[in-house]
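Convert to structure. Protein one:
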Amino acid sequence: MTTNRLFSNLVGMAIALSMLNTATSCSDDNEPARTPRAEIIVDKQSLEINESMQIHFTGVADQVIIFTGDKDHEYELRDQSNTGFAMNKGLFTYSYRTPGTFRVVCVASTYDTYLGGNLQTDVYAFDVTVTDNITEIDDISTTITPNVYYANRLSENDWLLCLPTKQLYNNREMTVNAARQRLSITIESDSAKIYLDGEPYNSRTYYALNIDHSIRVVSSSGTIRDYTLYGMIYPEFSTVTVGGKDATLTRSAFYQDLQTYLVTTDDLTLDYTVEDNVQLLDGSQPMPPGCQIQLGKEYTLRRSHSSNPQVRADARIIFQR
């Protein structure tokens, strides 16, 4: 049994509660402190990071504190501002964000019902081993004020990030410099190392996001996973006329893949030019120059990747008066 000033706040709480409980009763109602027993059941002692551990208390206590053993929660450093967690209703759940071996300490305490005196404690300790094999990328994105552009996951190891040539900001068209933007790569592990094109990834570095990149994630335990990030630009017509007159492009402030072209003639013959790897489609059917269009119908302008035709950037095209 030990007494420690760590529990001074707990004793104070017990005193306050005891005073409330005894305000209308006499001191003869005092019940002496029971003998505490720090007995627990732990569901697992080998964990992955971010995997939950559950501790069930089966002993005797008026208050149970769990020191998880990681930073700021070490029992041995309780006199140096390290703290534990109060267990609620006999169940405590916790997960670790960093790998390592951690000393978990359960402190069970009891006290007299009258003014919370006669504090007694019992301690039980065990080790938890936490490993980090995480190499899974959760999100890839870039922020170009006022928008955040998220990459789409194409497969287990392939991501596609599409950017427009221009975006609306304060009702003005602003050119997007895709060749120089910061990149955000999100992963659950704080210990994993990320490399982009063989160099350590840095969220403050500017990258060319209109080209492809190789990404390697190395977990704390040494597991390696390789990814490809495809960077593409939403396609646009190089030139476009309807009925022999120029069609005017208007952009959406909310949908960066949407391009609306305003026409001024009843002749709906479409003529256009595009880059070599771009094609205009009606569903899955190609639409060559000189075809007829329908106002209000949505078409697709598709840019296919030069080395992987399954990777493509699709812009939605609508013609309106």
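Protein two, convert as well:
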Amino acid sequence: MKVLSKMTTLAAASALVLSLAACGGTDNSSTPAPDASTPAEGAAAYTVGICQQMTHEALDAATQGFKDALNEKLPGQVTFEEQDAGGEYANCGTIMDGFVAEGVDLILANATYPLQAAASATGDIPILGTSVTDYATALSIEDWSGTVGGNISGTSDLAPLDQQAAMLQELFPDAENVGLLYCSGEPNSVYQVETIQGYLEEMGYTCTQYAFTDVNDLSSVAQTACDSSDVIYIPTDNTAAANTETIANVVIPAGVPVIAGESGICSGCGVATLSISYYDIGYTTGEMAAQILTGEADISTMPVQYAPSVTKMYNAANCEALGLTMPEGYEPIA
């Protein structure tokens, strides 16, 4: 009888608990279940696709500056979809097609190949380029006015080529032959080489172009350039920037100094550069993106922007290896 009495008591207690739970459920029934299609509070409002042509110091810095600016201007509101094309144009096209299919709100095209691929992939999604030297060359625009128009704008990494030529003359006034080393597959490298060649030849230098097709013939072409050059100039070339060790292994033993178009290349194989800050142009691009995403600016009327300043820099280790002393006014590359 005592056992039965305990069982009866437990059953009653259980019924009471279930009853209270049911009452509690009734009290909360007025709150609707969350709609899975509605973004949770604090969820990102914008998706930005980033396609970087390849991995190297300059492009990495531009991407970081872009992200930092957007995160500061639109904190917690942006999701980034980052893709690296590995230096292949075909990969850029595949990545851009994916961004378009996903319906991203804006595309960052970091370097020339991504910009060209993005322009081919969509005429609707806003596209911002960065680390692009000359938009007219990259997009085959005649009568360049400073504004691309349509759904494209961005920032340029073009340093003043006349000043780079003047720097080469300042450092190597007695040189006679200048080798221009660049990747023939990069339109903006071709543009820089042809432009600076004009300045250098006006100064009395004999210039010879040494074009490599990819990393496979880079070493042999660099050696050929060394054999006939007193000094070598390398523009802001992405293939060169990603393979500075290969170049350094040729030019340093040959005793031929390299003037580089930007600090990343100079830190690997150069002796001096007149360089912009890639982080800064990336940051400026991020500020432009924030204005576009929030509707504060119309991308079709936004002119391409340029780095506000340049800095004379030198590679202390390479200068020492070649027995060179930099004049005042040059900052060591950290």
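The chain has 13 helices and 13 strands. Residues 1-41 have pLDDT under 50 and may be disordered.
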